[in-house]
Design the sequence.
């Protein structure tokens, strides 16, 4: 079995398994060029295929106050003009 066949079979088994929250099927290379489909289960871990990646959008934080003294803040960057 080659890599593509093993991945396709693992995907097929994952989609059709009634107890897919308890284990997963994965493709693994046992020898160079020889692939196997393995059933993986982790005690105490539930697999959830309903998870999706999400990006949270937060407002930008307020700009912190200028720590310089007021007289220094009011001078232009290149001195008095």
Sequence:
């Amino acid at each position: 079995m080659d890599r593509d066949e093993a991945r396709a079979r693992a995907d097929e088994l994952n989609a059709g398994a009634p107890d897919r929250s308890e284990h997963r099927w994965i493709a693994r290379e046992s020898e160079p060029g020889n692939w196997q489909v393995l059933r993986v289960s982790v005690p105490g871990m539930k697999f959830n295929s309903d998870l999706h990646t999400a990006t949270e959008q937060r407002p930008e934080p307020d700009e912190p106050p200028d720590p310089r003294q007021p007289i220094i803040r009011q001078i232009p960057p290149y001195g008095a003009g």
